[in-house]
Amino acid sequence: MQNAVEIVRVRPDDLIEDFSAQAAALLQELVARGAALGWTCPPSAAEVNSLLRGVVEASSEGDGCLVAAWQRSKLLGLGYWTRYARPTHSPHVDIEKIAVAPESQGQRIGQLMMHELLQAARDTRTEVVTLDLRGDNTRAIALYESLGFQRYGMLPRFVAFGENRYDKLFYALDLREGPA
Ligand SMILES: CC(C)(COP(=O)(O)OP(=O)(O)OC[C@H]1O[C@@H](n2cnc3c(N)ncnc32)[C@H](O)[C@@H]1OP(=O)(O)O)[C@@H](O)C(=O)NCCC(=O)NCCS
């Protein structure tokens, strides 16, 4: 099982520089290829480091979860959720990003990371998991719907990428309705 992919939750002590550098390189490559991850140009390594540190620090209080997909010492993917800060929304979390390296896509790594993110949400007694995405991201739509996420809204032509406009889709999974 030397080449097995391992899905782990990143702990505060784990956020070593190598992880952060690999995460930045992965996200930069995806964004440079046009991935719908919220950036219009590749994020700096410092921005990614600060973002991921914030999620991992929140995880010690159950308010965040960062998962990583490793194959030996190579990072193949990452994803995270954070808990809503608004007190009336605090039972709920939002999956903000999930990303798999281009050469590793279509091998169920995204699905495995989503299962881990959802298990972490259940472990922290989360009630509803939300996410949103760009309307042309058909692979992500298929992944989320296969896990039971239901579309609850759409903002037409909301996502701005240069002169282009894309629909923004809103999805939710109610964990109170039983296991997905
Ligand atoms: C979206 C993403 C995270 C999915 O991860 P992945 O590891 O490639 O996906 P998986 O292999 O786990 O496949 C999950 C589902 O996606 C769909 N899928 C996978 N490969 C596909 C392909 N080549 N074409 C179309 N759909 C595909 C399938 O529905 C699959 O489930 P099924 O085979 O049981 O039907 C990944 O493609 C990615 O990082 N994309 C770029 C960044 C991004 O768009 N992130 C999401 C932002 S909301």
Automatic annotation (TrEMBL):
Listed InterPro entries: Acyl_CoA_acyltransferase, Bact_Acetyltransf, GNAT_dom
Pfam families from the UniProt entry: Acetyltransf_1
Acyltransferase recorded as keyword: yes
Entry annotated with the keyword Transferase: yes
Signal peptide residue numbers: none
Keywords: Acyltransferase, Transferase
Coiled-coil regions, chain positions: none
Gene3D superfamilies the record matches: 3.40.630.30
Residue stretches making up the N-acetyltransferase domain: 14-176
PANTHER family assigned to the protein according to its UniProt record, in alphabetical order: AMINOALKYLPHOSPHONATE N-ACETYLTRANSFERASE-RELATED-RELATED
Protein name listed in UniProt: GNAT family N-acetyltransferase
Native species: Leucobacter coleopterorum
